[in-house]
Specification:
Layout lengths: L17 H5 L23 E2 L1 H4 L1 H10 L6 E5 L8 E7 L2 E7 L5 E5 L14 E2 L2 E3 L6 E3 L4 E3 L7 H4 L9 E7 L2 E5 L7 H4 L1 H6 L8 E11 L3 H7 L6 H4 L13 E4 L6 E6 L14 H15 L16 H17 L8 H5 L1 E6 L3 E3 L7 E7 L6 E10 L13 E3 L14 H18 L7 E2 L7 H20 L16
Bound molecules: FE2/S2 (inorganic) cluster and fe (ii) ion (FE2).
Length: 483
């Protein structure tokens, strides 16, 4: 075993670097893809209790989830007045809805009488009526009717506010974000690098072709972290090693926009973990055969790439053509990386849109009822078909803890890879409760973004405690750092 203790936080992987691979692309590469930054963010361990303790989950809820910008829904899902999506996170709930004035609002989903949750499901209404005693609000959130109002002069004669409390709303490129902190930083500042980079990958030119949300038996950070690094490919997804540059993935944290980071996993190149040199034909053939399942292409499992091809260019062209037909859109200008690579941005705390369109996915993670569970959303954001009406957003499939991803109609072969990831989570969560070693140890480069995310959570909690006049001792046992 060799050790490389100089330049911690820098890639020492074998195999070509992502930026070198991009130079071989057959189309102009969007500028955003060439912008990378990998600051060293430390080597400290992370306490296991951060994933398992109710006390830490409570601190996250009080000082992080209540103060960060979170993706709630697509504007297309609330296109008409009264249409709404219920966004739940860590015991809080918002009704994200469009008023008769066209304005998008995020109304706190709790009756002002005795607290009842007003809406449990997405839908369209003329007003919001509490199921308990029938108090009613219009779709702008203003109180409209109180049965027996003579008994509530506090509300009906103006001594109490009558509209449902609102969270902040930001609209970006067809997406709706919410923040429950009235004094939060503007979304545009927090997400600046994401906004800038996605000018090259406009989400408003896509539509929601698939959406499923599933309860998963592990802490939200466990699940999110598994979709934030390529290090686990070698053991969890060994079938993709012949055509996946796992170890030579690129990881970026943008110092000027520290809530934004990126995982760039090149495809159409063999894993550096495979010692023998595969031929370009083998890499291409394995990739096409695999993707005929995972991307829902048919009749491509027997493709024999000709001599003299370059695997990336060949596969990208094959998929570009196939996807143009599948999406009924001309994808000729999309470069090879956008067609075949996994380019996953991350906006703190838990929203992750893919930049390319080979797998045009978006992920979201939210804490569950206990530290041992969470909810993961998967969206497929397909390119808009050329010259056709914008398709209606797909209906959301809700999967219980005991259901498999493949039970969601439209998940296709993607479910196989997801189930490989899912098979780890119960064991991870269980092992995090083992006290033999009290910390997890992240790699300096490949898992640096994970460490950075934990440190950002700590910043929110420490600042929140200070502002509340409470002692930092409350979080001290959990802070990132060695035992
Ligand atoms: S709790 Fe809502 S009307 Fe009584
Ligand atoms: Fe995975």
């Amino acid at each position: 075993m060799t050790t490389l203790d100089n330049d911690p936080g820098v890639s020492h992987s074998r195999g070509p670097k992502v930026q070198e691979i991009l130079k071989t692309d057959t189309r102009p590469v969007p500028k955003a893809l060439t912008e990378f930054a990998s600051p060293y963010v430390g080597s400290e361990d992370v306490k296991k209790a951060r994933y398992t303790s109710q006390a830490f989950a409570d601190l996250e809820k009080e000082f992080m989830w209540s103060k960060t910008w979170q993706f709630a829904c697509l504007e297309a899902e609330i296109a008409t007045p009264g249409s709404h999506v219920v966004y739940d996170v860590a015991d809080e709930s918002l009704i994200v809805t469009r008023g008769n004035d066209g304005v998008v609002r995020a109304l706190h989903n709790a009756c002002m009488h005795r607290g009842t949750r007003l809406k449990d499901d997405d839908g369209t209404v003329a007003s919001f009526v509490c199921p308990f005693h029938g108090w009613e609000w219009d779709v702008q959130g203003d109180l409209k009717n109180v049965p027996g109002e003579w008994d509530f002069p506090q509300f009906t004669h103006g001594s109490k506010p009558t509209c449902l409390p609102q969270a902040k709303v930001a609209l970006w490129d067809g997406l709706v974000f919410v923040n429950m902190d009235p004094n939060c930083e503007p979304f545009e500042k927090v997400a600046s690098t994401l906004i800038e980079h996605f000018k090259d990958f406009p989400l408003s030119k896509r539509y929601k072709a698939f959406h499923a949300v599933k309860e998963v038996p592990a802490n939200w950070k466990v699940v999110m972290e598994a979709f934030s690094e390529g290090y686990h490919v070698i053991a969890t997804h060994p079938q993709i090693k012949p055509f996946c540059g796992d170890e030579n993935s690129e990881y970026s944290i943008y110092p000027e926009s520290p809530f934004v980071s990126r995982f760039f996993n090149p495809f159409g190149v063999q894993s550096p973990h495979i010692v023998e040199q595969l031929t370009e034909q083998t890499v291409a053939a394995e990739f096409v055969a695999f993707s005929s399942r995972s991307r829902g292409y048919s009749d491509q499992s027997q493709v024999q790439p000709p001599d003299g091809i370059q695997a990336r260019a060949y596969v990208a062209e094959t998929f570009r053509e196939r996807m143009s037909g599948m999406f009924r859109a001309d994808l000729d200008s999309y470069t090879d990386a956008e067609i075949i690579d996994a380019i996953l941005y991350h906006l703190f705390p838990a929203f992750a849109p893919w930049a390319g369109i080979g797998q045009p996915l978006m992920y979201r993670w939210r804490p569950g009822r206990t530290p041992d569970s969470c909810f993961m959303d998967v969206y497929r954001m397909a390119p808009l078909p050329d010259g056709e009406d914008i398709p209606e957003p797909a209906v959301t499939t809700k999967l219980r803890l005991d259901q498999a991803w493949k039970e969601a109609p439209g998940m296709a072969g993607l479910a196989d890879v997801f189930e490989q990831d899912m098979s780890n989570f119960g064991f991870v969560q269980q092992g995090l409760k083992s006290t033999g070693k009290k910390t997890v140890t992240f790699g300096n480069y490949q898992e640096g973004r994970l460490r950075h995310m934990h440190k950002t959570i700590d910043t929110f909690i420490l600042q929140g405690l200070a502002e509340a006049g409470r002692s930092a001792d409350e979080v001290a046992p959990f802070l990132v750092g060695n035992e």
